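Translate sequence into C-alpha cells.
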Amino acid sequence: MSLAEKIPQQLQAKIDNIIDNVEPSPWLNAAEQADYIEKIKALLKEKDAVLIAHYYVDDAIQALAEASGGYVSDSLDMANFGAQHSASTLVIAGVRFMGETAKILSPEKTIIMPTLEAECSLDLGCPIDEFSQFCDQYPDHTVVVYANTSVEVKARADWIVTSSNAIQIIEHLMAKGEKIIWGPDRHLGQYINNKTGANMVLWQGYCVVHDEFKLNELELLMQAHPDAEVLVHPESPEGVIAKADFVGSTKQIIAAGKRSKADTLIIATDHGLFYKMSQQVPDKRLIPAPTGDKSATCKSCAHCPWMAMNTLVNLYEALRDGSNVIEVDEVTRQKALIPLNRMLAFSRQQGILTAGDA
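Result follows.
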C-alpha cells in the first residue's frame, strides 16, 4: 500500500471520532437569536471588524454577515474580500484553513474565528510531514495543492489552485511538459485527470461531505424528476460527477443555477449553499442530492460537522473577548504566499475568475 493510500486510512479513525464528538449548536429561540445578532452587530462596529462567512455555515450567520456589511462566499474569495476591506479585524466564520488563508493575505490584520476546533477532513487527511514524504518520492514533479489545505501544506506546494481554476492551471503545466503531484482531494484530482489527461499522481484525501453522495440513489432521484438539472461539486465521487449537467465550485453552481432553464435543480454539495442559492433562484425548486442509501434514516445529510460548529453564541464570545485568534508563522506564511500569488497572477492574466472558487 502506498503512503498516499495509507495515511488517509490511518487518519480516518481520528476524523470519525472528531465528527462523533462535535457538540451540537446551542439552540436559541427567536428572541435570543435576535439579541445575539444585535450584540454582534454592535461589537463589529466597536472592534472595527467585519464578518466574513462561508456558504456552508448556519443561515443566521450568513444573513448576519450580509446585514452587517460583511460577505458570504467561498474560501479564497473570503480571504480576498478581507484583504481589500478596511477593517482591522476579520471575523472568519468557516473552518481553520480559511482563517489561515485570510492571515496569509492579510498579515497585518487580526483574524479571529468563532471556534478554532472547526477543522476540515481534507486538511486533517493531508498532514504536512506525511505529504512532504510523499512528495519527496517524486522529486521531478510539480506539487499542486487545493486551497483546502493547511498553511504548511500550501508552503510545500509549487502551485495552489481552486476548483474554479484548477483545470486551466493544470493544462498550463501540462503544456510546459511538467509532471504533477496533486493533493489532497482524490475526487477533484480524478476529475481533473479525466478532463485534461494529466495523469497526476494523486494524494488520496477526500471531503467527508461530498464523498458521501450516492450514485444509485441519485439515479433514482433523477428518474423521479426527469426534467431536473443536476449540479455537482467536483469533490464528489466520479460516478456522481458523470451524471451532472454542470460541475463546478459553489459559486459556479449558483451561477449555473441562475442560467438554468430548468424549474428543478438537484444539487450535490453542502446544504449550507441552499441559503444563498434560494436567494438567487427563488423561483426554482432545490433538491439536495442523496447521501444515504435505501436503509438510511437520513437520505440527504450533506452538511459539514465542522461548519456546524460556528454559532451565533461562539461568534459573539470570540468577538467580545478577542479570542480564537489565528496565528501563522511568518516564514511559513511567506513560503505559502509564493504559490498563492502565482495562482492569482496566472488567473488574472488568463481572465479566470478567482472569486469564490473553493
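Note: The longest strand covers residues 49-54.
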